[in-house]
Design goal:
10-stranded mixed sheet; 2 domains; Rossmann fold; 10 helices
Length: 267
Amino acid sequence: MMKKIIVLFNGINAPWHITTFAINIAKQNDAEVHALFLRDEKISNPYPSDIKSAQTNFPGDNEENSDEQLEEKNIQLFKTFCDDEKVKCSFERDVSLKKFVELSAAADCIVTDSHDDFRKYSLKDILAEIRCPICLISINATKIKIAILLYDGSDDALLAIKTYSNLFPKLCKKKTYLVTVNEKEKIKRKQRESIYQKLEKRFSDLEMVSLTGKVERELLEFLDDHTENAIVVMGAYGRSTISLLFKPSLSNVVLNQSRTSLFIAHD
């Protein structure tokens, strides 16, 4: 049962579709939502001086004050949203990347935007050391109606599917596709059927889809037909998890060329 959800924000740019997703999941699981406002890059005086007059009226000072005001406004909005939905919440501001990694160890799931809006960090920086499951939420898929489980025959893929079902039992009642893409006939029919039989005990409306051809092309064509409020569930699809996340890979294809959200479980 999920108890703690971390929502990761860039303080001055808080995409509220990720808050909506997190609050909906928290209500289903009676979980707490903990918002972290990451310490992003700040403009500093490129010409430091001990002379007071040299430090006055530097444009970065005004921008920094403006950023702080925006962050405070976003914090208050976050608290209001949670209070309105009667969801227990907490927040921390000015969180360093190191502190975020430490806090994530106690979380059941991290929720953040599927599109990178941080000035200093990239998703690579933020997620490189994280080992808890991650939901990268698209603005087009905040209320999940369809789950697409990607299976490539690996233990990592199966782990991601099982983790998703354990964390989101109510979403397992939604329409779900178990999708394999046989680029070189690696996954035999008996193997697909065996996995399907195991998973249909977890997913009440499960359909098996077997595609043949180039993985990226076939998957994108399938996603184009299932774009409305869909989430793709994947592990290290054909690669190590680090390779999957941070080199040109299937996850990049899903994030950059589809309108779906993405759930990734680390090994």
